Amino acid sequence: MRLVRKNIQYILIPFALGLFILLWEFIVSVNQYPSFILPTPGQVAAAWIENWQNGIIPRHLGLTLFEVGLGFGMALTFAVTVGYLLAKSPLLEKIVSPYIVATQSIPIIAIAPLIIIWIKTGPVQNAIIAALITFFPMLVNTIVGIRNIRAEYRELMRSYAANRWQVFTKLEVPAALPVFFGGVRVGITLSVIGVVVVELLWADRGLGFLLNFARGQLDTPLLFATVATLSAMAISLYIVVVLLERIFIQWRRSMQ
Amino acid sequence: MDQPTHIKIESVSKHYGNPRDGVPALRDVSLEIRAGEFLSVIGPSGCGKSTLLKMIADLLSPSAGRITINGKTPQAARRARECGVVFQSPTLMEWRSIEANIALPLEIVGTPSVEREQRARELLDLIRLRDFAARYPRELSTGMQQLVATARALAYRPSILLMDEPFGSLDEMTRERLGQELLDVWERTRVTIVFVTHSVGEAVRLSDRVVVLSARPGHVTNVIDIDLPRPRPADVRALPRYFELLREVRAALHSSGEVSQIVASSDSHVVEIDARLSDPMTR
Amino acid sequence: MKKFVGLLVGLVVSGLVAGCASAPTPTSAALTQVSVVMGYIPHVQFAPWYLAEKKGYFAAAGIKVNYNWGFELDGVKLVGANQADFAMLGGDQVLQARGQNIPLVYVANYYNTFPISLISLKEKNITSPKDLIGKKVGLPGFYGATYTGWRAMLYASNIKESDIQTQDIGFTQVAALTQGLVDAVAGYSNNEPVQLKLAGKDINVLNVGDYSKLVGIGLVTNEKMLAEKPQVVQAVVTALMRAMQDTVKNPSEAMDATLTNLPEAGGSTLKTTQAVLDATISLWKSSRVGFVDPADWSVSYKFMKDAGFIKTDFDVTTAYTNKFVP
Hints:
The complex is a heterotrimer. By secondary structure, chain A is mostly helical. Chain A contains 11 helices and no strands.
């Protein structure tokens, strides 16, 4: 019994999933939905297996993964550099903030023609647009993480006559890391969303395209299978971030 | 450490904000601190004692007057790492182990790692916390953290230790014990200690001299010699001379301006300063 | 806006550098690059294009076609602003653009009728536009080709828009119809009817093309192309027309070409792909492939004007030309 209690989370997750699948089967059979309205879990699984084996899902998954990685990387770089600069200069932040916030409220579709004319379309371009959606939480968390460092710590470093690089590496980075990682968690999720949104608009490859394609062919099992693949991808990436967080912020463990 | 440390504070004033409507913190403070002495600075809340300490540490600059440390400006002294600072809160880095925290100043000055480890262990022994080397600050009580902060401040063997109400947030028992530990450390290292406190008993118990500041804007009203025996005996508080000195310091505090003074601060809400201080030991 | 653009530049620079680095291998200097805005994602309806590629018709004419796929790419704006060379657009779109002084020119027909249909389940007994009065019709939106087609059908049948109850159902036509949310839906003639039949439903189909002469989808370019590179336009038109004829003559060949370029269409949905291809053949069939009767253009212009899609008058003959068609 103690063994069960200790590992309860590992038992509950598949249990909840199983319950969900049963409920789904139940709803479909009660309402007699045709497969193009709501397929059964079995049909979705079959579609997934078939499209995995014939290479369709892997190919599009690979491209989307590439775009997510590139977009996230660009967003991270931008967020960290600009965030640090803004954190250090309240004046700069006051000037730049309104524009940055404004970019977040512009729907991609609205400025799509402008973007196309500027940078055409393609995987790298998709990544760039996804980066636009992704960078904001990481930027904000960088600023907050750096700003939240109490003045006493800076005084301490000053009393040691530490140079800027030392203050950066020995104080600012480790101190800001926990808050920063919070932003990364959000960022990685957003980058998946961002890439899929762009792909839905104008891609001929990738999981977003596959969603459109399945929809156009009225192949709802494939549609759901693609959604499942997207979810699995997002969850995996999130887990990677959490694991990285554990590695980088090992010292937190002594609290738990 | 046998070099004469000499802190000279000459007619120092400090003003926050602009001269017209800002907050005056210190007014014309002059003081000389001798090498190797344990000097306490005491005064009512807001009298500027922390400000004074920070100016010595070059974390603030005076609006008028001059401070010289070992013949150098505070900035030069800071760059030459002549002072170690202990703040009101331990300010330990929670992502570093105790040992790594103590070694931090040495990392910054570029001490090679073997020497760093050795010195860190030395300091841990000094404060008798060797067993806690691998623990993290969160696992220690505030009192122990302050002890670690003190050891850290001594890492590169500064000639001066500046302490800003280091035991202020601790309970009476811990305060006493830490005060005793501090004396131990001082006996062995003979650094010059400038110790800001608001506890009369503590000031008398630990110091060679006690400097009394007036209420804001602070200036020196009394400098009282504490001629209790060194090393301080364990039962120092039973000595009649102790009580006399307590009364002397308290009297100096009460007469250092007003018992109760109302000063309008720059953001125009009224600040009332009460010069009465409590020391449970004298009740 | 300036700051946003500035931010975008910063990101774009790194993107462009990376993009250039990952650009396709250089083509031989002899091939002329042309861009075509397809207006949709890769799909079997573009079989003639796939066939033309497979048989090398474009390459033989010294042309390399760069396809711009996606629903949200606006061919009207891109070609109109000379940012793309060609687009697949409906006659209605070209007329509407011309009404806004956008210099588009329709150079070859692709679908011989306006490819919109009104679909209903057989039991509703809707066999003519008048039968729709009093019924609920679902449209994917009150804009775009489907809406224009719907209006064209009403116009040709003398029915007022307000006589029939319409509802915006987004792109859920099949579901809306089978679940009984609406009585009829508007969709593409080669798409929704096909899918419904495959789903085993008995349906009635009203083709807009049977009632209105509104010009359907074709290859569109801009005045600049016509002035500066008419030979390129001719090459593309010739290659495409040839491929369309080949597709009609030999659908299985076109199917193979499609599957080569779009393997996804051959997966679990092969049946759908095949059925859609079969349904589209009738849209490509023509006694003179690519040609549009000027009378049809006049009729289209009158409709667009009366229906309020065109605000300012213009000479409709500037909107099209048949000179490139064989």
